[in-house]
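Notebook p. 47: complex prediction with adenosine monophosphate.
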Amino acid sequence: MSNKNSGGRGRSKNRSKASKGRGPAGKPRGKGRSGQRQKHNYKPIAAELMIHEAVPVKEVEYEAEKKFDDWDIHPRLKRAIEAAGWTYPTEIQEKAFEHIVALKDVMGIATTGTGKTGAFLIPIIDALLAEEQPFQTICLAPTRELALQIEQEFAMLTKKMKFSALSLIGGRNIKQDIKKLEWDYNLIVATPGRIKDLHGQGVVDLTKASVLILDEFDRMLDMGFQKDVTFLADQIGDRDQTLLFSATLDKTQQKLIDYFLKDPVKVQVSSGEASAEHINQTVQYVERDEKFGALIELLKNPEFKRTLVFAETKHRVKKIAKKLNQAGIAADEIHGNKSQNYRQKALAKFKQGKIKALCATDVAARGLDIDDITHVVNFEAPTDYDVYIHRVGRTGRAGRTGEAITFVEKE
Ligand code: AMP
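Predicted complex, structure tokens below:
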């Protein structure tokens, strides 16, 4: 199989494909996926792996070469970036820019928190401002929350410009998506399940897109989206550019990356999040039936201002949130059984400090952009070390030290 990328041609190539028009309407078919997996044979990782004394992080401040103000980008985009309060580009933004502008396929190794969204949005918006013909970008993201964050950042960076973005995510009324798809958008940000569903109904025309972005690619694979992503990329077919962002790069992804990208430029940035060196990690041995009591005790401590509590299943997450609330500790839950609206509200309450604890499954917590989580508690240890690192990496962000506590059941 060869990849369907055209590559190497001028920016305006294919971009007239986003001309005004509406896709044919079809009959509803199928259901959006919940993106949740239930674990059966639960084998937690070894307790020794989850004990670590924080090593102070040497803040390796990335020194950008130029301020955004000195970049060769459209003045309107400069103003929007300035209004966002961004002065210097982050490492990924600086390193990826010239390659994206040159229409190269790019593989970016960067996690949430490194400014990777801006890294792909800034050159795309600059091209939109420079192009006479509008073009369309499709961005696939593993979770609803991440898709919304990308849409919001696009809105922020295109304020007062006539560009439009649409998010297509599970948990929303699909009829409204269909109605919205009567219009054209410069950017469509979608979770793979929902856009595939809409494509199956004949209401989204993927052939219009010139640019494909695969965000948090490793997570999309973790969540079982490989087939959907491949299907969708094949539908987009002849495109100008593909950008792929992943927090990790392991050999299992390579074959697929070769399929999606043509002669990619690899841009890698250092990230504090991939390691948990700066996070104090302890385990607490508890009897199974004492876990709820132990969690309540922990959360009564005023130092636990904003705690993310992880459990392995939706059912357990729900139960933990219920028990905490019964004990007078304001808590809410995010997992695949909760509507998008509900999850957004819970997240907002957590960010505003209206609740002390947010109980989550791994899938629901992926890609969340919350900077000041004081503690992560693993009510159950995960079964995979990468997942563990990802969980505890939710705390200790933005140069802070973090605290992670994992409950280990007494034998
Ligand atoms: P991301 O890694 O794209 O999720 O971005 C993480 C956070 O950094 C978001 O809240 C962005 O708004 C913010 N951000 C992105 N780029 C910059 C920048 N150049 N300067 C300051 N903040 C930024």
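Notes: The pocket of adenosine monophosphate is lined by residues 86, 89-90, 93, 112-118, 369 (CB under 6 Å). The first strand starts at residue 106 and ends at 109.
Next step: compare against the earlier run before touching the bench.
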